[in-house]
Amino acid sequence: MTRRLRDNVAALLADRGVEATVERTWARLVVHTPDPERAARTAADAPGVVWARPSTTRPADPDAVGDALAALARAAPPVDTYAVRARRVGDDDDHDFSSRDLEREGGRVVGAVTDASVDLEDPDRTYHVEVRDDRAHVAARSVAGPGGLPVGTQAPLVALVSGGHDSPVAAYEAMRRGSPIRPLYVSLGVYGGPDHEARAAATVDRLAGYAPNFDCRLRIVPGGGIAERLVADVGDTRMLSWRRALLRMAEVVVQRTDAVGIVTGEAIGQKSSQTAANLAVTDAAVDAPVHRPLLTRDKDVIVEQARAIDTYEDSSITVGCERLDPDTPATGATLDAVEAAEPDGLLADAAAAVDDLWIVDE
Ligand SMILES: Nc1ncnc2c1ncn2[C@@H]1O[C@H](COP(=O)(O)OP(=O)(O)OP(=O)(O)O)[C@@H](O)[C@H]1O
After folding, report:
1. For the whole model, what pTM was predicted?
2. Which residue's alpha carbon is nearest to atom 14 within ligand 1?
3. Where are the domains of the chain?
């Protein structure tokens, strides 16, 4: 896990032009860099990182730690309250001080050079001191990372990405739990158009930026012909058949790659095609597992996360297109009813369309 995380963080730093080398220690990564602030913000974008701290490194000695804390406290904008948290790892023989000693002495030093007072419950600023063997890392702030697991520690998943607000967030969640994603967009012909495809491509670009050392190129399957047939032949169950075609295409990509399942951005009841009953009908089109990380999330929470991972703007591109959905979409369809209304051989045609898949390689 830590080896993988080190490689991912190093790739992310290199991709964003941050000069750095990444050292793997027992339970931490130490990034050596001339720009700790930028390096910390960048590293905190890597799935698997819980926090990153722009730190100064000193010898593991209370006086040296005190000097570093004083320098940080003087340089940082004033706050009313603060706390010093220290952690010491290593043999007791290595250190003749405890973490409590570092906190007490560090607190005194910060108090002496600023007007702030100690608040251990809810401080405006927390100084962190981490002593490992002969080194002490001292920081005045911590940047929260996404947590989760390093990308590449789980098997890949095919992510159906439409480019709307939901599917990029769902794909990101799969990455955040360690799965590289193989993004798949199904073009809709006259029901989509270039803007629709550009929106999907832009959001996938953002996602790729979180794991630049993995293949996250957009795969596109032409689905315009199938969409036209469904509009011509199918009434209120049309969107269910469309979803079934999408899932079947994704399943073929799963079978042809090293992926082990499908991810979608669906949430219970968010759209007529996503009622609990309708999800059962769409799932029946495939044997591959369909993962829905957003299943129980409300839209405002999803949108908030889209902003946090920077896909919101791209997902908001206006896409003028013809309507694919019927006037009165079915909300409680049965599999029998959907199959009866579906054009013969729809799923086989969907599978065959994957032969024309192309990969966007910029
Ligand atoms: N053209 C497409 N290409 C690839 N996947 C798609 C496409 N359209 C829909 N999907 C997948 O099906 C899911 C449901 O699509 P739908 O348009 O009903 O819902 P949505 O909740 O608005 O999703 P999104 O916000 O991602 O567009 C999407 O989250 C996505 O995973």
Report:
1. 0.95
2. 266
3. 1-52, 55-140, 157-359
